[in-house]
Amino acid sequence: MIAGIVLAAGLSRRMGRFKPLLPMDGERVLIQVVVDQVREALDRVLVVVGHRAGEIRTCLGARDVRLVENPRFRDGMLSSVQCGIAAAGQVEGYVLCLGDQPRVPPGLIAALVDGARISDRGIALPVWEGRGGHPVYVASRYREEILGLTGAEGGLRAVTRGHPADTVEVPAADATVLEDLDTPSQYEEMRPR
Question: Quick one: CA dihedral 33, 36, 42, 48, positive or negative?
């Protein structure tokens, strides 16, 4: 069992508007698009919420996902990763997904999991032209190490970049693994696609 963990607890400071509820395709908002992508690939999906959690809960209402509230969401993304992993229970691994990445290529999540299994590696990173992106697969054997991070070590990268011998790079089909929505201009560029 693989758990998809969607990170959607942030404050959206750089966007100036609450990112999870930005309209994306006429029918759905950003968090719905991301959750639907992850849910298509994985049976178990957790969405870590914090800021304006009630609105996300309402918007995801009928979807088969588990919402996990991060009381420390103001501490940054690492706290949300830790919250999601702690709530995931006994699983083989985690696919860590950004809540503001609406264009994850079809099949990428499966490719990451397959890449880790086939290579017998604990970490699988999507790579486009030498640059690592998201989502990221991490085996459950790194659970305690991730839960023990304080942020002083460089956040989650202390794990995802700290074990090169146990990491497989999975070639991405395009640059979408590097794209997320942080600013209004990025939103306007990506939305029409």
Answer: positive
